[in-house]
Input
Amino acid sequence: ESPEGRRMLEFRRSLPAYKKKEAILSVISRNQVVIISGETGCGKTTQIPQFILESEVESVCGAACNIICTQPRRISAMSVSERVASERGEKLGESVGYKVRLEGMKGRDTHLLFCTTGILLRRLLADRKLKGVTHVIVDEIHERGMNEDFLLIILKELLPHRPELKLILMSATLDAELFSSYFNGAPIMFIPGFTYPVRTHFLENILEMTGYRLTPYNQIDDYGQERMWKMNKHAPRKRKSQIASAVEDAIMAADFKDYSLQTQESLSCWNPDCIGFSLIEYILCNICENERPGAVLVFMTGWDDISSLKEKLLTHTVLGDANRVLLLTCHGSMASSEQRLIFEEPEDGVRKIVLTTNIAETSITINDVVFVLDCGKAKETSYDALNNTPCLLPTWISKVSAKQRRGRAGRVQPGECYHLYPRCVYDAFAEYQLPEILRTPLQSLCLQIKSLRLGSISEFLSRALQSPETLVVQNAIEYLKIIGALDEDENLTILGRCLTMLPMEPKLGKMLILGAIFNCLDPILTVVAGLSVRDPFLTPLDKRDLAEEAKSQFCGAYSDHLALVRAYEGWRDAEMDLGGYEYCWKNFLSSQSMKAIDALRREFICLVKDIGLVDSNTASCNEWSSDVNLIRAIICYGLYPGICSVVHNEKSFSLKTMEDGQVLLYSLCLIQWCFCLVEAY
Ligand code: ADP
Ligand code: MG
Output
């Protein structure tokens, strides 16, 4: 054994999960379903699959085990498998492997496979009984993602047919009772955690302590400005969520009379709809200049505000100084090579600051964190039942999430947590987050139910841990019938079957399919990618006219979507000569969004080739048609039946003349007719 191996074993033995190893193995051997609950970082994800692997391999009969451990995200499936392999002193693909969409590493002797929940669902499509699998471990069930809830319904039904199959559910927080009762009182194993004390500051304490002044101005930074302007112009008035109103009421009723006058004044300027970049910058700077060593973790909502904040911090004299600060980001769409950087220790005297989404809340552990900043929000898909559209919006987190974020600070030594909102706002948070299945549209899920041949959609969903409302289910089914993915009897059509192979919203999938069929995939890829990221057209308040002018040169008489296609094509040419940034700057485009569109296009094209919609040898984009009317017709078809509201908002499509309308309707008929033909044969 190498010294490295010995050190690793010693580390593993120090984890709380290791101390419960025998008890865990024994409860698993005596029960078909076991729930394991424990603090983040106690060793559930990395250790428990290994315990099973080791005990099975060492067992007298030498039974060949086959363990599948699901992770809610690609990034965790990949990084966890890497970590586990290295703990075992092996290369990935030996006894430990992983599989995520379009990527994987698995060998003949792989007995422990980490994969995304989606991958296991797909496997169930081909092999209903999970032949050869001995253990299924579903990790991070507390997140209550749609796929996980869906998987549990299927597994629950499978268990009686596979009595020797073991199911292990792992969760970070205390909601274990709910899962236990769903699985007929399955035993719960608690792993005690340990954290050092964390000093907690809410906004009022931060202001009082530092004397920082909030003004209406420093709450509206560039990012916020752009955002607010957009909201005023485009967003149809949304019904406020229950939590948002509770938070507003709490602020109205709050009483800060024990605080200094300056703090009270500051608090009256606090804007709950904004993330105050300036305050974050100020606190970070304070930490860097005055505080003891230790990494800083900043919880933001998503890729867009993370990159805006990063841009801002890089211009700061202290925070942007690479000799003093190692500024890193962490979010779901990052490549695993980039992600690996966040685990690394910085050089002496350099402070590591990680700007992250909520993926660092539970699924990823960054070891050296001592300071946490929590903006109090996370992006969550929510569902607008009126328009039947999903939207990804920053929403207030739950108390459980806030506690998790705070806990990240006390792992290595006593820590500090700065919540960037007042205490009364925290008190207004919900205890738990609403499960995804209850807050998002169910269209994709319904398609999956059908493709897995699980019978009636409503009957199937009624067996969920928490079932969605009947009306929401009916809406989803109705939508799928209207767009032609399901027939009148709720059976999958050919279009429906194609859509189940594209893991994205049906409307985007439809566009991709038609783009491939009609040989104009290149522009359609841009449109679909563009609809999945933050709008790249920037409209800063003080340069609104210039920005609109810049945009109009792309539009001509066409639509916003086509403007995007042209802007992207221009960017791609400029980027080839390394002039992408300048091009964006000149044309009021977000260079981050352009890069994201570029990356997504690549991913989508792999998917489209993967399922055989285009020939895998098709490489050159130039061969594709760029018939404007055809492209518009496809976009229209994709958005149908949502076109009316789109046209009404004048945001995404501009039907400027009667002829335009006729051309589109005509093309629309053509496309529908084409699908009838395909169906008929
Ligand atoms: P849990 O799933 O209970 O949250 P994990 O099994 O993910 O915990 O992690 C257990 C411990 O292993 C963490 O506290 C951390 O110290 C260490 N660890 C996990 N992943 C890594 C990694 N990629 N690099 C370094 N240490 C890691
Ligand atoms: Mg874990």
Summary: The two ends are 64 Å apart (CA to CA).
